[in-house]
Amino acid sequence: MTNRYPFPIPFGWFCVGYPEDFPAGRARPLYYWATHLVGWRDESGEVHVQDAFCPHLGAHLGHGGTVEGCEIRCPFHGWQFDADGNNTLIPYSERLNRKATLRTYPTVERNGLVFAWYHPHGEEPMWEVPIVPELEDPDWSFVGRTEYTIDACWQEMAENAVDAAHFRYVHNTATVPELDEYTTGFPEAVMRSSQKFPTPRGVVEGRIDSHAWGPGISVVNFSGIVDTVNLAVTTPIEADRCVVRFNFSVKTMGDDETTRRVGEAFAAEVDKQVREDMPIWEHKAHLVRPALADSDGPFMRFRRWAAQFYAEPVADERLVYPPPFWPDRVDEAPAKATAAARWTGEAGDGG
Ligand code: FES
Ligand SMILES: [Fe+2]
Fold this sequence. Notes:
Blueprint: E1 12-17, E2 27-32, E3 35-41, E4 47-51, E5 66-68, E6 71-73, E7 80-82, E8 87-89, E9 104-105, E10 107-110, E11 113-118, E12 140-150, H1 154-158, H2 166-170, E13 178-184, E14 188-199, E15 202-213, E16 217-223, E17 228-238, E18 241-251, H3 256-283, E19 286-287, H4 299-307, E20 320-321, E21 341-344
Antiparallel strand pairs: 1-11, 2-3, 3-4, 4-9, 5-6, 6-7, 7-8, 10-11, 12-18, 12-21, 13-14, 14-15, 15-16, 16-17, 17-18, 19-20
Bound molecules: FE2/S2 (inorganic) cluster and fe (ii) ion.
């Protein structure tokens, strides 16, 4: 089988769930970056993410494993491991097995999400998960989140940030955002754009600014009609499949009810746009050498930025990477696509 994309799974900080997915004293199975994992919260309140399979005889620690204080206990023969992955107890043996270790991923809870650092070669984190100031500001309220599982790699989706023209044709917006700035570094990429929104009271100047920290975390600020921030996090499930989570907060406008209604309307518009993007992303080919127009955005600059997050080789044997042919998707209405999405307006407690 040939690969769907030339790209391997990137490294970076990735969201592995919401804090309430990890109740204290419980272990649960996770599956990200093509790896079976266990996530658990110890009794001091810290979340840990480790490889799922016990080094003794391979039991999955997320299926029946139990939390004992600040250690995880295997359901098969009772071996215990600490938060660094060291074997701390073999209940029927005097001696520990020092070679029996669990690979452990650095984990941090921030901005109302749980993040873990993934690097295919186990390198330590190269940057920190940014704090989103709006989420700590009493003038801002959390309004809700959406979640999508999408058959595309993160890079195809993130490329949207520099693609102004698609707004008009995919999302039917009246105007196209104008790119004011695109700055790339490591791990950050900053895109600032202005947009004119036609409203019944005349044209309103608005902005869409996005700030990415590697492949997993983007903070998108919208202003103009309503000030909104979307903490957009993407986590690879496999090299060709991701889960995308959007977390919306809105600057308080008058009373709570108005703020909530405005925030939800805004989130619904973004949700509509993602559903419009999904069939394009899932069915498009990745072209190594796209045929660009003069006025297209800085696609190649984006791709050079993205390339920094691959520690493993990027394939170079082809110029065109098409998707598989999915017979069951032939008659699907594009707007429905294949991805499952959910809206959880009540979730969370203000981020
Ligand atoms: S497989 Fe985990 S203790 Fe034996
Ligand atoms: Fe889009």
